[in-house]
Amino acid sequence: MGKRSTIDFGIDLGTTNSAIAVLNGVTPEIIKNNDDLDVTSSAVHISKHGQLRVGKRARQQLLSEAAEGDVYIEFKRRMGTDHVYAFRSAAVNKSPEELSAEVLKSLCGDAQQRLGEEVAAAVITVPAAFDQKQCAATKRAAERVGLRQCPLVQEPVAAALAYGFQLRAEREYWLVYDFGGGTFDAALMKADDGMIDVVNHGGDNHLGGADIDWAIVEKIVLPRVAKEFNFPELHRKNLRWRTAIAQIKHAVEVAKIELSRSEKTFLADCLVKDATGQTVEIDFPLTRSEVTAVATPIIMESVEICKRVLKEKDLTPAMVNKVILVGGPTLAPYFRNILTEQLGVPLDHSIDPLTVVARGAAVFAGTQRLVCNPGAPGQGSYRLELKYNAIGPDEDFRVRGKVAAENEDLTGFTVRFSNRATGWDSGKIPLKSEGTFKADLLAETGTRNTFAIQLADAKGTIQKTVPEELVYTIGTAPSQQTVINSLGVELRDNEFDVLLEKGTPLPAKQTRVYRTTRALGKEDSGEMLSIPIVEGENPKADRNRLQAVLTVKGNQIRRDIPAQSEVEVTLMMDEDRIIRARAYITMLDEEFEVVITPDTRTPDAARLTRELNEEKQRLRELANKGGPSPAVAQQQAKIANLEDLVETAQSDPDAANKAEARLLELKASLDRVENECGWPKMVQDARTQLDELDDVVSQLGGDNPEFARRAGELRAEVEQLIEEHRDDRLPKKLQQVQALRYEVLMSRDEFWVSVFQNAKRNRAQMSDQTLATRLIGQGDACLQRGDIQQLRQVVAQLLGLLPANVQEKVTSGYAGPGITVGH
Length: 823
Description:
Blueprint: E1 9-12, E2 17-24, E3 27-30, E4 40-41, E5 43-46, E6 52-54, H1 56-60, E7 71-73, E8 85-87, E9 92-94, H2 96-115, E10 123-126, H3 132-145, E11 152-154, H4 155-164, E12 172-179, E13 184-192, E14 195-204, H5 209-228, H6 242-258, E15 264-266, E16 271-273, E17 279-281, E18 285-287, H7 288-312, E19 322-326, H8 333-343, E20 347-348, H9 356-365, E21 381-387, E22 391-392, E23 396-404, E24 414-419, E25 429-430, E26 436-442, E27 448-456, E28 462-466, E29 469-474, E30 477-478, E31 487-491, E32 495-500, E33 508-515, E34 528-535, E35 545-553, E36 566-573, E37 579-585, E38 590-594, H10 605-624, H11 629-648, H12 653-677, H13 679-700, H14 705-723, H15 730-746, H16 749-761, H17 769-785, H18 788-800, H19 804-811, E39 815-816, E40 819-820
Parallel strand pairs: 1-10, 10-11, 12-19, 14-30, 19-20, 21-28, 22-29
Antiparallel strand pairs: 1-2, 2-3, 2-4, 5-6, 5-7, 8-9, 12-13, 13-14, 15-18, 16-17, 21-23, 23-26, 24-25, 24-27, 27-28, 27-29, 31-32, 31-34, 33-36, 34-35, 36-37, 37-38, 39-40
């Protein structure tokens, strides 16, 4: 093939298996590896001589006791963590992203060997549920291999593209069901008029085929082995049996695949050493019904996610045209039977579930134009800057461009485009003097259209151009990728303030103004302004995932920053979901570019145990208060599963990460049970706050009719939430009620006078007595000259010196004419 103008290569970097594909015309083709297989095992082995193997041969070393500690798999599950894989014999350590880089290197090498061209750029897929630090780790893995461009695309989007690329669908909803080796994604897609959009998404980074494998091992096989052979304390947490259990798990994986075609099979080639060192053969029978029994609860977890994804968009299964199956586990008949029964939507597995993501990644790669070297073109040639979509739904498409020619008048120059296959010609298109132009071109369906570019000067002399051609393909294209999980900052009192909302098209950017809660001294490296960056959907910040902490240190600023100082926080997310942040401190007129370093630490097992015990106590208290018995029983079942996970977490980082995620889910679930118990009081408090707002508006806000209008709207919205029993959204709405109440109060000069006097009475509790004395003096002077505007600034700084609970007392004690205002 000639020189490429689009990336064309797509890689599915999977937990269990990986694959690479290339877009050939309009057909995404899988590139086989050296073993002539479509997929490469995501396994890395390093021998004592330092020889590194990737793929099938590496994975086979799991069966060798001599290779214990020399081979690792499923490292995708630990992307974005600080976990270290120690290769015993070679005495080297590798991070998850380094091992992923080895898999990428192997795939790119296979492509180069088969096609005879270097893979300099490739699209790489990631689970839609991957968070920011996992995406960043994937990008770094690609950079290690030398990929100059490596756009990331969500696996469900890739799968949908593989199905819809050359299919003209009209207003169809597809549910992509991606059950991989270690992650699960459910993505609701809308295919319409040549475009594919992500409508909604749900997922779990700790749910996949490996969980079914472990369930078979732990619930079916290990109890039999322990009963019939000499393997004392046989469980995953006992490192003594790590090799034996790895061999058993491998045999289970093979048997599970065989059960896709038969009702019964036997564990085979499973020779392990018992406590005496004697080799025993594990050849137990395994039936499809046994596997179905232990797999069903795991599959049902994914089904519940699917149902939630549909419900959040008010869709019923009857409104979904098909479920697209992705991932090796979905090949099993029992798996498909459960999905058919539970979802009631036709299943589509016409494209191999093992390779559909790689094929779709190649399609997406065809939409991504290669970035040319920005250096000057060769002598006597002109660089063309072209703007167009390389894949689109229409046969006629527009190209905008500019001929880059510094300090040269291009009046009289023309450009023309001709389709090399069909002979269609655009005719000569005149350039403007600055070199810009636009052209409407015509393409053919069912092929990749290549248009030769011909640039002529004012005399008609043909000039060389870079590039010399452009390509365009008629096909379904993805719309903009979106923010998968809301991103924002943690505020005081554990409030989560969302800046980038779920579903926002990428790239995205949002700026919001906050105030510091305490002073920051210059040149003090021990003090810092810390703003936690949080990802999730829960209104409580600590129920979401902490991604990073935005910090500005004292030694970065040139003068002290008092409490209540204004700071603008900007969050930006690019198409690969990589985050950047800026903090602009108004009083310094200075902006700080903040490099967000994700927290990659593996969760501490002791902390997990402590927090689980706290939630167990919380559940007991809820049960004693008469919480809904079905809900309490459901949480008790979750706790039982979590106890096993937390215990395993002491020796298994995968279990630790999963336990942390499940613990967050448990906390949020108990919040809902707690809210259910407190719902009557929540409704009573809500109506009390509305009445207080009405009183304040009628007696203090009469000068501004806008206050009354907004109060009326808030009352209607609160009553609607009460009618819908939305205990998840009512607290947030009540914050708006309180915010309006304080806005009315703060519009009155006497409010600021009252708060100033209250603050003075609490002077002893202020953190900086010297500063407090100076500020109180300034405030008294403001009162004498009637300068309320300056008094407001003084009060804001005084409040910053007080503890949070005292601040609330100080600001809530203002008595207006005829009423008393308070919480």
